[in-house]
Amino acid sequence: MKDSNIQKLIFIYNADSGLKNSLIDSAHKILSPSTYDCNLCDITFGVFTENKIWKKFREETDLEMEFLHKNEYKTQYASKFGSKFTFPVILAQVNNDLQVFLGTDEMNDLENAESLMKIIQERAKA
Predict the structure, then answer these.
(1) In this structure, what are the phi and psi dihedrals at residue 46, rounded to the nearest 5 degrees?
(2) Which residues contact 31 (CB under 8 A, 6 or more apart)?
(3) Three-class SS of residue 40?
(4) CA 6 to chain centre
(5) How distant is the alpha carbon of residue 96 from its chain centre?
(6) CATH classification code of 3-124
(7) pLDDT in tens, 47-91
């Protein structure tokens, strides 16, 4: 997949939006990190703030990026794409279609923000 074909990357967390969910997720990260279900959340955010290395990369890349919680994705894209994907996932919008850029299994194998940034750079030539 070439960068020129990618209109944007859509990052979808395996978490729902809202203050209550955010507080529950933060507590889960602290109390039982090994059972936390969103590796995308875990490697791009600490318990309370965005990972500094990830934030710098995100702000400096030329790629358009959109970040959604799974309930937001389902609201915005469900009519066209349904429940076609598992979460967390990164999708690439290419020619008004969505393709898996980085699937759930690969995402869950990543250990840190640096490994995520490397994959994005390699696959999108960012």
Answers:
(1) -80, -155
(2) none
(3) helix
(4) 16
(5) 19
(6) 3.40.30
(7) 677 889 999 999 999 999 999 988 889 888 776 655 678 889 999
